[in-house]
């Protein structure tokens, strides 16, 4: 299963990155607040560096407070 790591700008927040699957579903994040973000779904058509990420969570369309700094393929060990 292909996964992508979305890294957010670091402004001292609790969540620095999300790992998403090929459908945009958040399957992991770090360093904390996993329970808040897991199963959210990224709106893939709007995913790019330098934007505030759009996603859905419990039926609501939301925007992440911090900018996307980097997007990279994720390989788990």
What series of H and E elements makes up the topology?
EEEHEEE
Secondary-structure-derived class: mainly beta
Give Rg in angstroms. Answer: 11 Å
The largest sheet is:
6 strands, antiparallel
How many E-type strands? Answer: 6
Helix count, per DSSP? 1
**Which percent band covers the strand fraction?**
over 45%
Principal-axes geometry comes out as: globular
Range of helix content: under 10%
Q: Order of strands across the widest beta sheet?
A: 3-2-1-6-5-4
* Overall pLDDT: 93
Quick gist of this model?
The chain is mainly β and 77 residues long. The protein contains 1 helix and 6 strands, in the order E-E-E-H-E-E-E. It has a 6-stranded antiparallel β-sheet with strand order 3-2-1-6-5-4, with no helix packed on it.
Question: Mind explaining what this structure looks like?
Answer:
- The structure is a single chain.
- This protein is mainly beta.
- The protein has one helix at 34-37; strands at residues 3-8, 15-21, 26-31, 41-42, 52-57, 60-74.
- The chain has a 6-stranded antiparallel sheet, with no helix packed on it.
- It is globular, with a radius of gyration of 11 Å.
- The two termini are 13 Å apart.
List the helices and strands and how they pair.
Layout: E1 3-8, E2 15-21, E3 26-31, H1 34-37, E4 41-42, E5 52-57, E6 60-74
């Amino acid at each position: 299963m292909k996964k992508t790591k979305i890294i957010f700008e670091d402004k001292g927040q609790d969540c620095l990155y999300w790992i998403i699957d090929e459908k945009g579903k958040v399957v992991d994040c770090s360093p904390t607040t996993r329970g808040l973000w897991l199963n959210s779904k990224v709106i893939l058509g709007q995913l790019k560096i330098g934007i505030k990420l759009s996603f859905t969570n419990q039926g609501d369309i939301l925007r992440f407070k911090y900018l996307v700094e980097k997007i990279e393929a994720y390989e788990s060990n």
